[in-house]
Amino acid sequence: MFKHTPPIRLLLLCCLVLAGSLFFVQSARAEPIYYGDTIADDQTIDNDAALNGDQVEINGTINGNVFAFGKDVTVNGTINGSLFVVGDKVTVGGTVSGSVFAIATNFSFISSARIDHTLYVLTVSLVTERDAIIGRDLKGISLGARLRGQVTRDTELVIGMLELARLAINAANGVTTGKPISLAPAPAGISPIAQVNDQPLEIRQAAAGPAGSRQVQIQAQEEGAADNTTNSGAATLDFLLKHLRSYISYLIVGGLCIWLIPQQLSSWADHLRRKPLRAAGSGTIAYFMGFIIAVLLVVLAIATTVGIFGLSLTSLALTWGGLSFSATGLAFWTFLLFVTFISKIIVTYLVGLLILQRFYPRAAAYRIWPLMLGLLLYVIICTIPYLGWAVGLIITFMGLGAVWMAYNSQKDNAAPAGAQP
Questions:
Q1: How many domains does the chain have?
Q2: Which of 145, 173, 180 lies closest to 160, judged by CA?
Q3: Could you say which DSSP state residue 154 is in?
């Protein structure tokens, strides 16, 4: 009944040691982190700063990284480091020598402001004013945007509900089947909130004039010539290499499963063989619940971290935030491992096993041969348009359902044994 207690205790002990070490390292520093809500005009901080409050203002100079949490966060000074900010309204009007990582309802990057590296932003409304400069890239997600500033390199923004839905669907579907879904374009008459491309501002402005038009025409001619030089043999080779890499990836993960958890793999395949329809139904529920729970865990981690910051327990908030986000990330990537690889391995292993048991029983005695045969058939089917996508989705649901059924069966079998004195 208590056979899982030692690993849990060991994990808790490691967490406590990590938390204690973080507190100890902080207290042992010659100059501690600055805590407060305001940096005055004539104030200089030669260390990292953690700022928290309803009104957070940075008007002076900070020689270090800044962690800011507040309702209204305003940066008019100089940060010789990176800025990590969470707030309702965030305004950057100063200089940041590093990158800016922002989560905000409204994010404004006003004139004369400068970010030397990259701006990463998750917001409802994004505004970059003229003469505001981003030294490298602008990347993020926003429901609405007005972009007038200068981005030296690339701009990669997902803007609007349609693009956000497209991103979420393609991300989930790419993980599940490896094939993106082509959503229909926006209806005629509906214009995007903002139009973004990967060219710097100077090139985009030049493209509006005659010289820019000639540049675009020359670029289009060069691209067309390059396309004409691509022969069918190279395209076929790329196609084969793509699916060969996919086959090798599945085979590596499957080989590790055969080596490390052979009994579990056989148990999952056995549950799938006995109740395939039930496995498909259970897997469908597990698939959607996995993503929903992941989102809820992220929201919970953010809410609790911000709440602890609100109590002015900055050190505890940083420690808790690191641990909670790390644990959530580990759980989510483990779930993606089952969605992307293990679910396919379970089904393809069972299919290969059934075929070999019917036609070549001697080879079925070795787990690697059914796996190789089943994966080969799966990769071949995936090359067929539409059918490959549908088969990949069904196989994912069935594999996840087999894992869930085996887990419930193991739990039910362990319950009576644990109830005995």
A1: 2
A2: 145
A3: -
- If you ran DSSP here, which 8-state letter would residue 341 be given? I
**Which residues constitute the domain of residue 103?**
28-172+192-206
Both 388 and 244 in a single domain? yes
Q: Output the tens digit of pLDDT for each of the chain's 421 residues.
A: 334 445 545 454 455 445 554 444 444 444 578 888 888 888 888 888 888 888 889 999 999 999 888 888 999 999 999 999 888 889 998 999 999 998 888 898 888 889 999 999 888 888 888 888 898 888 888 888 888 888 888 888 777 656 656 666 666 666 666 665 544 444 443 334 444 444 444 434 444 444 444 443 444 445 555 555 556 778 788 878 888 998 999 999 999 999 999 999 999 999 999 999 999 999 999 999 998 998 899 889 888 887 887 776 777 877 888 898 889 989 999 999 999 999 999 999 999 999 999 999 998 889 999 999 999 999 999 888 888 888 988 999 999 999 999 998 887 776 655 555 4
Please state at what angle helix 276-310 crosses helix 314-337, rounded to 10 degrees: 170
Let me know whether 51 and 153 are in one domain. Answer: yes
Classify residue 278: in a domain, yes or no. yes
- Do 196 and 311 lie in a common domain? no
* DSSP structural state of residue 192: -
- Does residue 11 fall inside a structural domain? no
